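Recall from the previous lesson that a structure prediction takes nothing but the amino acid sequence as input. Here we apply that procedure to Hypoxanthine phosphoribosyltransferase from Acholeplasma oculi. The sequence below is the only information supplied.
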Amino acid sequence: MHQDIDEVLVSEAQIEAICLKLGKQLSEDYKDKNPLFIGLLNGCVPFMSALIKRVEIPIEIQFMAVSSYHGGIESSGDVKIKYDLERSVMNRDCVIVEDIVDTGATVKTITSLLLHRGARSVKVVTLLDKPSGRKVELIPDYIGITIPKRFVVGFGLDYNEFYRNLPYVGVLKPSVYIK
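The prediction returns the following tokens.
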């Protein structure tokens, strides 16, 4: 897998530092609030796992399987919920945990849905923010690092479901996905 990476964009050490910083900020902002962290599967798993180890307050976690890529390298814009929450968000402070915010369509759709379901508040924490890819108006509340408009994989991000297990975020060589 490593040979398919053009360059490492965010190293393991950088990811660890980001999780520590975000974990401290979330702990401070949500003390005494009993937040519900909602991970968007599958990409959130490594980031959410690393992040919640750094959150020093009681939290609950839930997951949703949501997709807008459907196997390609660009978002289709068609957001599909494949697996929904098992708990109510009524009067809860929710934190959406996302590996990357690119077009913003998925996060905006889920934020609207949670608010419609009665969430008290909905904030977004993302490891990676790619504002140059944005197609909707959205700024994540907690950003690990802003990256340029490049196709990245690793640490949860995939190409055709592969590369999620890389311990860093790297730029995938175009020769892998351009045939």
